[in-house]
Structure formats: structure tokens, C-alpha cells
Amino acid sequence: MELGIADDGRVFYVDRNGEVKVVSPDGLVSTAGTVPVYVGQEFGLLGIALDPDFTDNGWLYLYYSPAGSEQVDRVSRFTVDEGDTLDMESEQVLLTVETQRQECCHAGGSLEFDTQGNLYIATGDNTNPFASDGYTPIDEREDRAAWDAQRTSANSDSLNGKILRITPQDDGSYTVPEGNLFAEGTENARAEIYAMGFRNPFRIGVDPNTDGLYVADYGPDAGASNEQRGPDGRVEWNIVDEPGFYGWPYCVGENTPYVDYDFASGTSGEAFDCAAPVNDSPHNTGITELPPAIGAELWMGKASTNTPEIGGSGAPMTSGAYDFDPDLESDRKWPEEYDGSVVFADWNDSRMFSLGISEDRSEVASVTRFLEDLDFNRPHALRFGPDGALYVIEWGSGFGGDNTDSGVYRVDYTDGNRYPIAKLSADRTSGPAPLEVNFDSAGSSDPEGTELTYAWDFDGDGTVDSTEPAGSFTYTEPGGYTARLTVTDADGASANSAVQIVSGNTPPEITVNSPENGGFFDFGDTLAYDVTVTDAEDGEIDCESVVLQPALGHDEHAHGHDLHYGCSGTFPLNGDEGHIGANIFGTVTVTYTDQGNGDAPALTTQEVLVFQPKHREAEHFDTTGRLESAGDEGEPGVAVEETGDSEGGGQNITAIEDGDWWAWEPTHLTGIDEIGLRAATMTEGATVEVRAGDPDSGPTVATIELEPTGDSQVYGDFTGAVDAEAVTDSGPLYFVKTSGELNVNWVEFIGQGVTQP
């Protein structure tokens, strides 16, 4: 989730499931400790910061959601003992943030120290965004407090939806520094608040020149502006260099107001006054008249932007400002040309930008795309270390969070001889003892092309076990080991890569018997599940240790719902009105952690399933292309345009040549009787074949014959029966146009699907 870098080169990072990890300077990874956390919705272990005097006192600070029934988040201080062990008995709870856990979303949790020893804490609005059509959630009805961000972000008496600033004391308490938004003793206001009016300030970074903050704040999901509701969904990147109110839930971007919407009557009132916002919600316990809203420095919307260099962005990330030190002896520090710059990343599409800040540090002077060759996979946290290098957590692919392609990376700037690249592969990473593992350095290289030398430490004892490019090692005793490869070029520069090996334990195996991966449902349906877990060492499985979490999938991420326990049962798969027209679907993550085996540590297995909504907007296809037999004239695959369909839908797919296809994966047609297209077919009509597994050779599971509608934007509804015997497995489903002309607005999957009757 987040990371901190010690002066000696150790990297501490946290996992949302509660683990605090340490990467040593030589690449060894260990678990310092595990904090018991609640991981429903978006809660968990979310933030970490090292004390400014960490080298001397070993203190680190965590933002986490404690396990149990108490609905709070905590900021706690722990001590790291010698041996990189988190002393769990040393916990000092500095600050408690009240939350509600019945409804998703937005927990925040990012932590940062400034140069004066003040700790900044970012908190989310803890408000359900899924019933406000993608606009502002301000439902003032009596039983809808969790759907009203006026209760949190715009409430001076709540710590949610804020940037807090406190000064930790040696005894584990804190004081409030001068200059926060509300003086101590102000009625109906919390003195810890430095800035308010945020939705989900997921990442913050400090400017060491001013001690101001850079705040990446996530926005709602409306696809377009609406005169009756407000602007399209916009994310923000703020320069928070003064206390104040930063707009949410009344204003967004450059102070574009939302409309005061009455959820009880479904009617719209006047636009909010960003210059003099008033919080008159019955859920507000703070002051009524708020400070003038402060607009965002950068904002990126679903249909608009004030930053053309970035365009649209749905998931902003930020570092702090780089502080170039000419006296620092480091062969990896970034050069002076980046002094004062900030790194902006988009989690959704993995783009990274360098933001140049003006000399007075008050505004962005330049936005430049960079690091394109590094090919990051969803950068999740960014921080410049004391060595002048950039450290990055990469989320990787998948929705469950336990992604095999995630990682922690250091981005060095080298002038002259560049570091070699170390790549390590192992044919297995766990199993019963004695465990034989074959290792290989294939893919390791030197940018200058010199010959590499190799040094393997298979068991992590600091002794070189082999100098060959590949080798094998047998772990005779149960336990956890770190195998490390070090490669060195002809000029003496070296790099390493490491992998964890567990001897004496095998990972559990999870089989999801039902529902089928890729099955179809309607949001709000209930699904029955049945899971089989086996583990060679555990023997009989305690089903109460099997955890299932449904979630709302949205583009590349998921909003988790509550947790369910057991090998079988039912769960609701809820959607929302806040993502209408968006690329949404359902996911379920099934997790089991075994009990370990003596000295062999515990292992965790996750299975992630995706469920498809029965109504699929055509423009949200996963892939598109053309049959091999159709030739390559023109642009293969479909295009997207604004639709003229009187039934709405936002966009349709167009430019569909014979042999072009669009597809979704995974799919499973259990319980689906017919497939329908909302399509315009001009004067000729058209034929679409639905094929499973492969667009060229897969079986045809449905054929949809479309009659002419007379115009490219006059739409009708057409269906084809599904051959239930043609496909029985999960896999991709291809819609292949074989003749005629058509545009497609949406696809309907008709039948019970995988849901309960």
C-alpha cells in the first residue's frame, strides 16, 4: 500500500492485509510483523511513515483498521527492534478516527512527516458513492447518513475526508501545531484538521521547501456533466499549502459547483456557492458556514480536463517534491534538473509524469510525460528516498491485491556506466522438505553489453553458493529462506534479485465449485457459492478460515464489499447508481491462509473470479480485432463513437467490417438462454455470430440475424438463441460480424445466469 525508506537503505512497506514488510539493502525481504486488521470494504493496513529520528529510535507509524467490532481507524506508533522485528507490545495509539463499516468506500490512510516533525494524515470521506448517479453523495434522508459526505468531508467535527496535522510526542501522545484550520477550543470543530473537503485523498506527498502538501484526490464517476446534477466525474491533484476547505462535496476541480439535489423527491435545486458554502445537512455536527472553497491545481475529468498533457485520469498518485542535495554522495540520486519536481502517476493506465513546480512553489509550471520505457504496471505509491532515488510500489494486475506481478522498485539515475539488470527464476518456491529448487538467471543483462558474473546465495546466509548462471539447491530443513542472485558487470556495478522459498509447506489449493467464473448476473442479485480447500499440511480445513469478499469491479480496480466466511453460503453482489454507463462488473476473491508447518511459515492462496453483468455496454469490450481469414485492409476491430440512440447508452461501437469482432473475458453461459443486441443496421441488415474460445475456430454458440433499421442511428432489439451444449467452460466470448452493416449500443444476456432464483 505505502512505503518508507530508512537512511540505511531499508525499505519498509505495508500490505493491506496487515503485514509490515522490510526489504534490506541487499534485497532480502522479511516480515517485520503482522497487525490484525479488518479488510472489509476498503479498510485494512493503509499507511506507513518512519519517524524523522527513525535511525535512533526505531519508531514507525501505521494507519490501520483494527480487527474486531469497534468501527474506528487508528494511527499508532510501533518500535522496530534489532533484527527488523516489529514489537507489537510497543504500540502507542496516537489518534482514533471514527468510521462506519456498513457501507463502502474511501478510507484514505496516507501518512507523511514534514521537516518540522508534524505528521500529516489523509482520511477518506467514508461515504457510499454508489447511489448518486456518479455525482455528489448528499443524501440527507434520516436513514442515509452513510450516503451523505456532508456528514464527513464538510463536517468540521469529523476527522473523515480531511488532511489532519498533529505533532507526535515521545510519550506516545500528540499536540496540535499552530496554524491548523481550527484553533483548539473552537466549538464543533476538531483542532487536528489542517484541510477539509476531500473525497479520497489516497496519496499525499510533502514539499520539503515549504512543508506544503501535494494531494491526489480521487473523484466520482459521472460520465458527463448534467445541468440538474453537476459536472462530470473529476479527479484532482492539489497543492495544499494553506489550511482551508477544498470543496468536496459541494465543488470540484476549479470550483465547479454541484447542484443541491433532493434525494427524497428526486428534484434539483440551485448550484452550490463555492465562495460561501453552507453545510445545512441534518447529518452535520460541525459548523454550518464553511470557508470559501479552494480550487484544485490540476483536475482531470471523464469528459473534460484542465491538463491536456494528461487528458483524462481516473486514479491519480503523487510523490513529494524531489530535494536535490549537491553534497549527497550517492551514485543513484536524480540530477539537479529534477530539483523541486513531483512525480504524478495514473494508476489506471500506468502513465507517469514529471510536474515542474513554479519558483514560489504555488503552481504547476510544466507537465512532462516521462519514464515511458520502464513499463510500470499500475504504480501505487511513489517516494523519493534519502539516497535521491525514486521508490515505487507497483500494484500489478488483478483485483485481489495478492498479485504475483506486483513489486517494490527503485528508480536510479545513472551517469556513465549503468547498473546491470538481475533477473531470477525458480521452478518452484514451496513444497515439502527436502525441497529441491532449480534456479536460472536467464534474462539478466548489462545495458553496456559487458559480460556478467554471477553470485548465488541460495539460503540467505550471506555465503556465495554458486557462481554459475544457473544452479539448483536442496533445502533439507523446513523454514523460510531468501534466495538471492547478484550480477556484476565488467566495471564492477552490480544488481540483485531475490525470491522467497518455503521448505516444508505447500500452498493451499482452492477450487471454486460454484458459481462459474465469468457467469452472468444483475447487480443486486444473490449468488450461492461452494468452495473446496485442500492443504497437504493442514489436513482437515476449518471452513471458518475461508474468506470470501465480493466487490464491484470498475475498469482496473474493485470496490470491496463486506466479508463472508465459510466453504459455502450465499452473498449479494451489489452494484450502484454511481457508475451508470461505466465499465462495471462483479468480482469475488476467495482467500485461505494455512497454518504453516513447524518452522515453515504459513502460505496464502487467493482465487479471483469475475462475473459479467447481463447488460453490457458494447464500448466496454475487453478486446477487439479481425478474423485471420478476413484480411488486413483498413483498421482491424471496432471503433467507438457517441450514440444517437433514443434509449441512451452514451456510446456505441461502429466501423465494424466483415470479420471484425469484439470480446469479453471471462464468460460462462450457464443459465443464459438468449443473447441480444441493441443495434442499428442501416438498409442491409446484418449477421453476428457469437463464438466461444477463439474468434476463428471456436464453436458458434448463438447467431443473431438483424433486420434493417434504416439508419445508422436508428436502433432496434435483436436476439439469438444460445446453444447450451456448445460451450461448458469459462473463457472468452467473441462477437463476430459476418455480413451486413451495423452499429451496436449494448449487449443483453437473457436468462437466470449464475444467480439464485
TrEMBL record:
GO biological process: carbohydrate metabolic process
GO MF annotation terms: carbohydrate binding
Keyword Signal on entry: yes
Location of region: Disordered: 626-651
PKD domain sequence ranges: 420-501
A UniProt-annotated Pfam family: PKD_4
Every CBM6 domain range: 614-750
Keywords: Signal
Record-linked InterPro entries: 6-blade_b-propeller_TolB-like, CBM6, Cellulose-bd_IV, Galactose-bd-like_sf, Glc/Sorbosone_DH, Ig-like_fold, PKD/Chitinase_dom, PKD_dom
Gene3D superfamilies from the UniProt entry: Galactose-binding domain-like (2.60.120.260), Immunoglobulins (2.60.40.10), TolB, C-terminal domain (2.120.10.30)
Claim: Isomerase is one of the keywords in the record: no
PANTHER family in the record: ALDOSE SUGAR DEHYDROGENASE YLII, HEDGEHOG-INTERACTING PROTEIN
Protein name: PKD domain-containing protein
Originating species: Streptomyces sedi
